[in-house]
Amino acid sequence: xxxxxxxxxxxxxxxxxxxxxxxxxxxxxxxxxxxxxxxxxxxxxxxxxxxxxxxxxxxxxxxxxxxxxxxxxxxxxxxxxxxxxxxxxxxxxxxxxxxxxxxxxxxxxxxxxxxxxxxxxxxxxxxxxxxxxxxxxxxxxxxxxxxxxxxxxxxxxxxxxxxxxxxxxxxxxxxxxxxxxxxxxxxxxxxxxxxxxxxxxxxxxxxxxxxxxxxxxxxxxxxxxxxxxxxxxxxxxxxxxxxxxxxxxxxxxxxxxxxxxxxxxxxxxxxxxxxxxxxxxxxxxxxxxxxxxxxxxxxxxxxxxxxxxxxxxxxxxxxxxxxxxxxxxxxxxxxxxxxxxxxxxxxxxxxxxxxxxxxxxxxxxxxxxxxxxxxxxxxxxxxxxxxxxxxxxxxxxxxxxxxxxxxxxxxxxxxxxxxxxxxxxxxxxxxxxxxxxxxxxxxxxxxxxxxxxxxxxxxxxxxxxxxxxxxxxxxxxxxxxxxxxxxxxxxxxxxxxxxxxxxxxxxxxxxxxxxxxxxxxxxxxxxxxxxxxxxxxxxxxxxxxxxxxxxxxxxxxxxxxxxxxxxxxxxxxxx
Length: 575
Known about the structure:
The structure is a single chain. This protein is of the alpha+beta class. It has three domains: 39-235, Alpha-Beta Complex (Adenine-n6-DNA-methyltransferase TaqI, Chain A, domain 2), CATH 3.90.220.20; 246-315 and 531-553, no CATH class; 326-519, DNA methylase specificity domains (Adenine-n6-DNA-methyltransferase TaqI, Chain A, domain 2, Alpha-Beta Complex), CATH 3.90.220.
């Protein structure tokens, strides 16, 4: 059943990790390798261990454990295979909990000296070759015993529970770690795989995850012990299957990287198109393999970005020679702007140099024009926090900061307030249809643009958020938002911005100088409508893919659980 559905499991989110858990769970319950009646049973192994422990106690090498309660039937989480025995950890092997000398006392610590292990030094199912902190000889004396020898098994049992490693250097360890000393007939690697899994079965889980953890609770952990020879067979089988899991895990990122390259290559042919005819030819190739290419959310994200890039270049909708060209639209915008300045309703800006042909990032389609962004809209800065200004009629109002302005939307979960004078309200207030553009942030975040749609009755903007307002009824803020969030505009912001480590910022002059494509007004509306429809389709596709992955995860979990339930329950007959 599991083998026939392996693809379902390994391609599910965290599927390989769940498969590893199942392998270890089956291993410690005797379901991974067949039993051999010729093997010496675990009962004999336990007798040998008890004899060795008695000799070590007599020599003062280890301490005698407190008497332990007999294992009751209700404690046993599953039926044991023939030849196996239930035993408590304290009866199986000696263990020792570490300690931490005073952390700030220099007499105990040095850059060189005895290795001292903390949980952060451990790699689960790995090995410890070095530690971050070292003990002086005085620090080692606090422990009262020699460093633990190479090959000692150590396991975390506080904070991070069940993390297990093998020492490859003599060392001490802290009190969140227990060191385990396998006796004759116990295979160290079997214990390494078995002990972390013990925390997920029956009473052992309660002991490990209870509110108090001490020597007694560890000593009471319940262990299913196989014959010594079978321990080695289990280890060999586990390691074989873990190598297979490694291969499956490595295949996932490799396949994902190859898929991403394929998607980027084919989408690159779309954005590399210069005419609608070229785009149509390239799209046919993508369309033929659509289900294969866009079978994961990140591929749909790339598709959406490609569609946006095609939109701002005029390749998503046809041009109509009968429409008023953008040159006429620009004349109207400039005439209205001059009228507002003359009427004192708009402050004049410093004249911008005409846009040169080489500054245009792509060839404009027929009927389009290039302009400076500052020539088609009014750009203003916002209120400066902490300024020293005379305020005669104070009003407390909400304002937008950089964190509120995301790409395509506003995040108003946390909006702060500022005091301004009533007379400044018109200067700093944002109104419906205003564009909000971030001045700075991470390099890929500078220039984030969103539209204000009266989300709050009254709101201002901070000086690190530019407000952009159309000066003509023929201004389309949605088209502007579309272009300013495009790859093309973002590339301009990245190149023009002042950059420091991981941060970038643009000033108002750089924003005003941005090359801005102006299609005919009716075509802008067609482009915006097409983009909204396509983005909605992309959102639906992402949702369906996410739902499909959720279903796959549930099916994989159900399959693995059904395999795990094949283990016989206590009192039942082993098959």
